[in-house]
Amino acid sequence: MTEDSSRDGYPVEDAFPHDSAALVAWLTTLVRNREYGTLANLRRARGRTNAHIRAGWYGGESHRDLFERMAFLFALYHQGRPTPAYGYGSLGSAAARIGDSVGRGPGDPGAQRLVDRVVVSRRVPWRHLQHTIVRLRSCDQLPPSWTRLTEDLILWNDRKARIAYQWSVDFHAPVHRSRPSGSSPQSR
């Protein structure tokens, strides 16, 4: 891909596009191959390591910092885990899994406060996202889809995408319980 303009007679390339699926594939490979040193480097929030720089390249020119921070969140969740978790759903549906036997999601006051802090933020709420990932890990619950989370954060400030609103809707969605096989509504 080139622009019409050129620099010193050579065509100028457009910015590299981002690839969140490739980032997640690379990160899950680190877990699968037990590359604990690289994962430990990614957990270092301060200072740019080679691992952070490599993660940033998947974000292209526009989203390098966001991809480095996503790699940090991924490595934080996978600390000490032998198998990768791709996760599923949005951050809101993942946060609905936070809690214990007394209550989960909206029934857990801590989860409710956490989601409230996330969805009211104008800028990407990195600190609160980190707390959410740590809570999911401590509750032994699956994370959100890492690919979807990355794409959602890219669109965080897009008013038409309404990411924060969608996360809130997903968090408060009613839990659908499936009936055990062989039971009828009358036998309940």
Question: Strands of the largest sheet, in order across it?
Answer: 1-2
Report the total helices: 9
The total of beta strands comes to: 2
What is the global morphology? globular
User: Helix share of residues?
Assistant: 40-55%
Please give the largest β-sheet: 2 strands, antiparallel
Topology, element by element:
Blueprint: E1 2-7, E2 10-13, H1 20-32, H2 36-42, H3 50-57, H4 64-77, H5 91-95, H6 109-119, H7 126-138, H8 146-154, H9 163-172
Antiparallel strand pairs: 1-2
Helix pairs in contact: 1-4, 1-8, 3-4, 4-7, 4-8, 6-7, 6-9
Structural write-up:
The protein is mainly alpha-helical and 188 residues long. It has helices at residues 20-32, 36-42, 50-57, 64-77, 91-95, 109-119, 126-138, 146-154, 163-172; strands at 2-7, 10-13. Strands 1-2 form a two-stranded antiparallel ribbon. The longest helix is centred in the middle third of the chain and has 14 residues, at 64-77.
Summarize the model shown.
By secondary structure, this protein is mainly α. The chain is 48% helix and 5% strand.
Give the tags.
mainly alpha; 5% strand; disordered C terminus; 188 residues; 48% helix; globular; disordered N terminus; two-stranded antiparallel sheet
